[in-house]
């Protein structure tokens, strides 16, 4: 393909994707793949000036408006933003901007704010009354969505104290993460199609012909620009305009920060990247703007973007790649989980070659097949997942994938249990289950046996040294010394670690046993209620159900486990091996200072790891859930806390306790909350 042919192809592809994204609210590819196409086109147009074209899609802002809506000509163009993707590119922009102003970058004042993944919208007020709402469209002409905008709960109908003149308030229409989850929940209840992501859902909800449909969707509006159409107001700084918008009742990004100097600005943009999942809404980057409005005017704009602002895009959390195969893994409970084998692709900064497909029903629902081009998503530390297939009209697809009927590890039958969507290998001797059971038993959250990772456990199973968790306590140093990778010293260390696990409390043993549905919280409550495994094993079902935090499902699972022949034999052997199988009694006084109280810990606390801080709360009778609710006693805030947790605590009126007061909280159960 010649450069001219490639440029023509890229322009056609970008125009097609613009129409899908901006007009139909149904993007065909992730943003990162679109950005890659756009960068390639701009690079070719720069390398071959003779191929340049002022009407090229690379110069466009958004896309033409849909004929379904009336046209609105913006009084001032709604420009796009230039993008950078790396820290050095951001630093280079700061230096360029400073040179354009004839100053040093360290003297510039920047405003750093989150780049919300929503739909750009402009709202016009005349004499303080909302008169028009419009989408960005192609930057000059947008779509009239006035009646739909009126239904958004945080868009004021009138501006208090503003009675004369015309202003435009620009911002982003979006769906908060919690609202998006609730919306998809309602879609499922109605048997309707779920939305792929908050951005598409927000755009589709705003661009409805019937305002009643929009009103039924939990849209929000966050503003980031005030345009004084009459030039009657005088502001020196951008943050002053945000203050005015806030006074009028608009929401602005509370995480927005003013930074002086390029280094501080870059550091703050990196903070957003590290905490993007702590925010209450989805972001795909940050926007950096010059705060001084006079300097903005001096810098001016290009035909498509201002020179005084830049967007730093974060590593993409969605990419497309080829699905090579669908395989099935077997977990410790026997659950058979389908997963995708992929052509490796960089997602959220890490190389992804496999991704989960969850279960048989999800594979069928997403209709992904080997050979398909698929969208892969990885958000933060979440396991990568296949979102769906990308339509390729010219490519023939393979037949639909069929879930296997036999276990790929042991050949035993795979069966679905009741009405559950999961499929299980029902062979208790399945080697894959044994491997995962022993790994889980030795894991940090259970008996914490250092040195027993997946490779070592697989080695022990392969050599026939263990076939159950109880076998670990029969191992001798001489059994291990001759294994590959284990000498006398390493063997001694592993035997010592196993010996140390004999004194672990019952609650940790219950976690390690992997009883279905029993997690750390239920294990602690059961251990506290019965004190010994013997008492727990003899408890009738009705008594188990009455334990706080247990309930019928967990109670039935525990009751069944304790009466299975295999479990009885295992627990007998563990008792004979010297495991205590009892829970230490809590002493009176300081140990019960947080009895019955939920304390949420967020951020880093000096002198404590996250696990240690939560364990300290639990040791004093409290609980340490991962989410804030009305029942939360307080939220302890350390360094780099989760913004969403702090925000929710404030919204619910839950006391916020600084890290310095954590030890006092543990010792006395009381705290002195800082003044607001």
Could you name the ranges where pLDDT drops below 50 across 5 or more consecutive residues? Answer: none
In the CATH scheme, the class of the largest domain would be Alpha Beta
User: Counting H and I runs of at least 4 residues, what is the number of helices?
Assistant: 24
User: Got a strand count?
Assistant: 21
Q: What is the CATH topology classification name of the largest domain?
A: D-amino Acid Aminotransferase, Chain A, domain 1
The CATH architecture of the largest domain can be given as 2-Layer Sandwich
First-last Cα distance: 64 Å
Radius of gyration: 30 Å
> How much helix is in the residues?
25-40%
The main pleated sheet reads as: 7 strands, antiparallel
Question: How many structurally independent domains?
Answer: 5
Shape: globular
Tell me the CATH superfamily of the largest domain.
Answer: DNA ligase/mRNA capping enzyme
**Structure classification:** alpha+beta
Estimated share of beta-strand residues: 15-25%
Mean pLDDT: 88
Outline of this structure?
The protein has 676 residues and is an alpha+beta fold. It has 24 helices and 21 strands. It has 5 domains: 3-60, Helix hairpin bin (Helix Hairpins, Orthogonal Bundle); 83-313, DNA ligase/mRNA capping enzyme (D-amino Acid Aminotransferase, Chain A, domain 1, 2-Layer Sandwich), CATH 3.30.470; 318-392 and 403-416, Nucleic acid-binding proteins (OB fold (Dihydrolipoamide Acetyltransferase, E2P), Beta Barrel); 443-576, 5' to 3' exonuclease, C-terminal subdomain (DNA polymerase, domain 1); 589-668, BRCT domain (Rossmann fold), CATH 3.40.50.
